[in-house]
Structures are given as C-alpha cells and as structure tokens.
Amino acid sequence: MSVASLVTRFAPSPTGLLHLGHAHAALFAWHAARIGGGRFLLRIEDIDRQRCQPAFERRLLEDLAWLGLEWEQPVRRQSEHFDDYRAALARLRARGVLYPCRCSRKDIAAAGHAPHPGEDGVGDGPIYPGTCRPTRRSFDPAADLPTVDRGEPLALRLDVARALEQTGPLVWHDRAAGPQRAAPERLGDVVLARKDTPTSYHLSVTVDDALQGVTLVTRGADLFHATHIHRLLQALLDLPTPGYHHHPLLTDAGGRRLAKRDGAQAIGALRAAGYTPEMVRNAAGFVD
Ligand code: GLU
User: Fold this and answer.
1) Which residues line ligand 1 (CB under 6 A)?
2) 76 - beta bridge partners?
3) CATH number of the domain that residue 107 is part of
4) Judgement on whether residues 14 and 86 belong to the same structural domain of the protein
5) Which residues pair with 25 in a beta bridge?
6) Does 178 reside within a domain?
C-alpha cells in the first residue's frame, strides 16, 4: 500500500451519545491517517432505522468537531445507499450462496449453539445451527426479493461452507495481530439481509469500505471476528481487501468496556463539566 493512498474511516452508528470509547476509535483512525499522510473519512452507519436517530447523528458530528477532528465531505450515510447493498445482495444470490431463513431468535436459542467466539458486537447472537440451510437448493437466485419477502420473520443468510468452496482459502492482515487465515465459519451462516432491512452490518460495511476506497480499517477488537466474514464477502463480490488494525477497547477503572449507557463518559457531559478538547483527547488515550 503506498502511503499516499492511505484512507481510514470512523464509522459510528447514531444510536446514542458519543462516549470516550468512541472518541478513542475516532482518534485512532484519524491519527493513523494523519501519521501516514492519508485521508480520513466519516461514515454514518444508520441502517437500523429504529435505533438510529437524527438527533444522535447531529450530536456526534458536533462532538467530533469539538474534539478537533476534520473529515472529508460529503459524509456517507448508509441509509441513503440501500440500492448499493441490494445490488451486492443480488450478486451473492446469483452465486447461489444465500438462503432464506424463517427461524426466530427463540428457535435459534432453543437449538442451544454456543455464542460466537469473543464478543463480536454486532448483535448476531449464537452461531446459527443451519436449520434452514437445506432451502438453498430450492432458492431461485433469479426470483425477485419480494417473493421471498412475504411470510414470518425472514432473513437471508450466507451459506459459509458453500461460499468457501467457491473462494478457496483466504487470508487477511491485521497490523497488530499479524497475518490471519480467514475463518468465517467461526461466525457461521450470518444474516446478510432481513425482511425489513435489505442489508446488514456485515454487508454494508464491506460494500462501503470498498466503494469509499478505504485502505486501512481501524476498529475495536470486539469486531475482530467480523472481519473473517468481511474477507469472505470481499472475495465473493470481487472487492479489494483493505489492511486492518483492531485496537483494544477503552475500559473504565474497573476494566469494564465503556458503553453508551455510561452517560458520565459521554463527550457532551465531559464538555459540560469543563473538560477541554485536549483533556478529552488525552482521556481517550491520545496525547497531543
Ligand atoms: N458501526 C459500527 C459500530 O458502531 C462500527 C463498524 C466498523 O467500524 O466496522 O460499532
């Protein structure tokens, strides 16, 4: 990767107030770009129309600007690009690696499979036991999505084993952890789209990082396992593979990871308590 082409990004979901942990992630990506003479992008990951709120987005833009970060315009907002994700989904369907799944969360929990290794932070829960996988054979890749859209809870899942048969072994590189053999089977047949949302975290993040020309994905170590799936999606969709740097999550004094519910750590609250941007940057682990 030539230094001049370095592109990093911070990709928050506006589901709550920005806290010190987010500030750490944002500054991490921003510094990586600055040190490498590259570009820094901001992306709003708001595909979950129920949990994401414009008010949170406004606040997070304000907080990041107050912290001293600058990013390129226009900001990519995922909710404005569902067509890109639909197109990617159609390509995957044409490859025969998707199948419809009608299992509820309860059905999956009842199957008693172990949760994902580590906490992947993307709300996928336990590894899917594959109950609906046999439907892949009768799933017409050319059928319109609405025809499989009727009915109960419906999701489209990635048949990971079948996908790996097509791609063969894959590798990716993490700046901290070194070379990795992609092991998407650790996450199992993840959901790539739902009846009410024609995409998912895994699909939209993979498509967007490629469309935006991101060359170094920096994010918390909680998403390390998700990268195995993203690498597989890149191979299936003929997308480039960026470098990765998964960083440790910021924790509180008791060693617990910071969460949006910890209001006291919100950037706005620190600001109201008299902290300067420099103090908050330092508290987030970055010394100017
Ligand atoms: N939107 C995700 C989050 O808020 C981060 C996605 C990523 O960096 O890949 O945790």
Assistant:
1) 11-13, 45, 205, 219, 223
2) 43
3) 3.40.50.620
4) no
5) none
6) yes
The CA 215 to ligand 1 mean position distance, Å, reads: 16
Q: Please say whether the beta carbons of 124 and 108 come within 8 A.
A: no
When pLDDT is cut at 50, 70 and 90, the band that residue 267 belongs to is: very high
Same domain, 192 and 87: yes
Question: What pLDDT digit, counting tens, does each position of 36-83 carry?
Answer: 999 999 999 999 989 999 999 999 999 999 999 999 999 999 999 999
- Across-strand partners of 246? 219
Of 185, 200, 215, which residue is a domain's last?
A: 200
Q: How far is CA 225 from CA 122, 152, 174, 182, 220, in A?
A: 10, 29, 12, 9, 11
Domain co-membership, 95 together with 63: no
User: Which mutation among 205, 208, 234 tests ligand 1's pocket best, with the greatest number of atoms within 8 A of CB?
Assistant: 205
On whether both 193 and 155 belong to a single domain, the answer is: yes
